[in-house]
Amino acid sequence: MSYNLLKGKKGIIFGALDEKSIAWKVAMRAHEEGAEFVLTNAPIAMRMGEINKLAEACNAQVIPADATSVEDLENLFTKAQEILGGKIDFVLHSIGSSPNIRKGKSYGDLNYDWFLKTLDISAISFHKVMHVAEKQNAMNEWGSIVALSYIAAQRVFPDYTDMSHAKAVLESIARNYGYRLGKLNKVRVNTVSQSPTKTTAGTGVGGFDAFYDYADKMSPLGNASAESCADYCITLFSDLTRMVTMQNLMHDGGFSAMGISEDVVEMINKQS
């Protein structure tokens, strides 16, 4: 159901890879709610995914950009404003990658060059996005910038290795840049800490199925789906959340508030 929450708003959506992607779901919902936007991803990700299919469905243009490159981001924001005919109202940062995880490195055996790459792609790119937006004065007043995070920023999930640090940095950047952009022109910046979600990137983490099932049993509402995360992001882009900024917002079915659940106790008792 559409409520025209984003009618007249213009945005940039980073990170849509395929139909499993949260960014893909956000783009579809933003289109339904009346937004115009451009889609962007790194050239290598675009070759792997189906972003052109999404662009056609949403009547959106695609601008390739490596989010770790300030030059690419400058081109992206310049072209986006030309295509959309004005400043930007919302940005979704849905970017995360760890070479260490992809190549099976354990936490005690990290490749430090790859670790730096994890931080650059998954967290520092968020700073670069907002740096470029600020320098170009590209955001409208009361705009909204959202990045996707995960509770491993605060808690230990052994198989999440260096991505846990990237998410912690991401959330810190949101707070610090949220203050800056809020003072400059009332732009709000938040992160959404989403349940484990069966995206292409998520399922690449070792032990994913186990902690997906564990989180589902721990959460009174169950795991939040990619579709429900998209709905939440839409509310954060809308004018209904104008006074929400610098927050890490838990979208996890209640997981983050739980100590233990009856379902988990039952599961442990069955195994003992």
UniProtKB/TrEMBL annotation:
SUPFAM superfamilies for the chain: NAD(P)-binding Rossmann-fold domains
Catalytic activity: a 2,3-saturated acyl-[ACP] + NAD(+) = a (2E)-enoyl-[ACP] + NADH + H(+)
GO MF annotation: an example: enoyl-[acyl-carrier-protein] reductase (NADH) activity
UniProt keyword NAD, yes or no: yes
Its EC number(s): 1.3.1.9
Broadest EC class assigned to this enzyme: oxidoreductase
Family: Belongs to the short-chain dehydrogenases/reductases (SDR) family. FabI subfamily.
The protein's name: Enoyl-[acyl-carrier-protein] reductase [NADH]
Species name: Pontibacter lucknowensis
